[in-house]
Amino acid sequence: MKKIKLDISYLGSAYCGWQVQPNKPTVQKFLQNSCEKAFGSSVEITGCSRTDSGVHAKSFICTADLLDSANNIPEEKIPAALNVILPPDIYVKSAEEVSPDFHPRYSAKGKEYEYIFCDRAYKDPFLYGRAAFVGVLDEKSMDLCAKQIEGEHDFACFMASGSKIIDTVRTVYSCRVERRDGLVVLTVSANGFLYNMVRIIAGTLLECGRGKMTAFDLKEIIASKDRSRAGRTMPAQGLYLNRVFYGDFMGEESEE
Amino acid sequence: MKKIKLDISYLGSAYCGWQVQPNKPTVQKFLQNSCEKAFGSSVEITGCSRTDSGVHAKSFICTADLLDSANNIPEEKIPAALNVILPPDIYVKSAEEVSPDFHPRYSAKGKEYEYIFCDRAYKDPFLYGRAAFVGVLDEKSMDLCAKQIEGEHDFACFMASGSKIIDTVRTVYSCRVERRDGLVVLTVSANGFLYNMVRIIAGTLLECGRGKMTAFDLKEIIASKDRSRAGRTMPAQGLYLNRVFYGDFMGEESEE
């Protein structure tokens, strides 16, 4: 068996998320079909996470297990071989053979997500499906509040209710908000994320940007472990998976 | 009769251009339907130009002639009234009543278009339909060559063959190429454009960016008035109508 690690990027708008579901277009399904056509053998695709419907990825890591080792496509030609088959909203950036014990999800040491808010009066049609349209935000207040999220905390308050995860402690390496090209961008990296965590953090920081919550409130919300005290879950459309870290420490020894 | 001037923006990907065509989705058709629903009367829509299938507009000017003057929507509420009906890839930025002799096409003193090239090895799926993917370009050579296009010239060489226009003299106010956020952007403004003019200029400057044509060649091509000596017609996807000028001179007294 041969294991190929793929670094892909996709615009999630047309897909019902990453994971294969019967009769629904998903990124995993398109990638699997493309790999089977290109490699001429059955392929098992494993992803680094299950992105929701409409979520985008600038860099998503997955592996293709070639069950039949007949593949003779040289590593460096795999991206082009897959890209001619894939739809144009999914793109393979690189491919490399990895050891059989590499797992895109369990070997990951952390991930970085981005959430994009558009707070202009003008709902730019070029941003439709790519940002959340909201009222005017004060990004400096948001950034101040975002710092409260950094560090190791029990993040139960930022987990979708109904989720079955028991250990809700995670380490957020960095959580920052800045204005970039007129948009408000939240960037958050952590050793792991709870279900809907970034979208709930985005909804909570939105309240901070509107002057409805302070850094002190945020500290209390985290301590309360109470989902109902945090903000709403923002729509998937503004969410991007930016990077997955596999080094021993985020930013260092990372494969990115 | 009431004449309302609308400044709209649209992502052209889903549309067969601006102009109404039977059984095809066009921007004009969607706008007309939305106006008829919002104003509750029959409406005639006139555009500043006929953008081709897949072409985008950051600012496209059109008028809505309300044939039945029953409309009582205050000017400032028209954009919101139309935007709730319109699909999210068409957006009305502003509306104002204009005199009956205003014509979005014939009153225009000039237009500005933009053409976006992506010359990265990486075919970013987020740019699909929004830029032309090409090989590596030297934007400085392109900009040098672009200057040859400025001024009053007979631009027959940059007109689609088969076009029936006789007077092919136009004044190009500005024609520049620059690298912006890693992309190569051509911006050209003129008192008028021939059919496919910007897309052929883009295809010709592409040859300059590849080192296949010089500023001297460009001068000769213009003088030759020979379409076959210019570059190819670039795809619609990279083309954006940026602005329409109605002042006496571009940039001054402009309504933009």
Commentary on this structure:
2 copies of one chain form a homodimer. The first copy, chain A, is of the alpha+beta class and 256 residues long. Helix content of chain A is 20%, strand content 30%. Chain A has 5 helices and 10 strands; from the N terminus they run E-H-E-E-H-E-E-E-H-E-E-E-H-H-E. The first copy, chain A, has helices spanning 27-39, 78-83, 139-146, 197-209, 215-224; strands at 2-10, 43-47, 56-66, 90-98, 110-118, 132-133, 151-154, 169-180, 183-190, 239-245. In chain A, strands 1, 2, 3, 4, 5, 6, 7, 8, 9 and 10 form a 10-stranded mixed beta sheet that branches. In chain A, strand 8 and strand 9 (183-190) form a beta hairpin. In chain A, helix 3 packs across helix 4. The longest helix of chain A has 13 residues, at 27-39. The first copy, chain A, is globular and about 60 Å long. The model of chain A is unreliable at 251-256 (pLDDT under 50). At the A-B interface, strand 4 of A face strand 4 of B.
Strand content of chain A: 25-35%
**Biggest beta sheet summary of chain A:** 10 strands, mixed
* Main structural class of chain A: alpha+beta
The portion of residues assigned to helices of chain A is 10-25%
Which spans of chain A of ≥5 residues are poorly predicted at pLDDT below 50?
251-256
Oligomer: homodimer
Amino-to-carboxy terminus distance of chain A = 25 Å
Q: How do the SSEs of chain A run, as a string of H and E?
A: EHEEHEEEHEEEHHE
The most extensive contact between chains is:
A-B, 18 and 18 residues
Q: Radius of gyration of chain A, rounded?
A: 19 Å
Quickly count the helices of chain A: 5
Mean pLDDT across residues of chain A: 93
Query: What sort of overall outline of chain A do the alpha carbons produce when their principal axes are compared?
Result: globular
Number of strands of chain A: 10
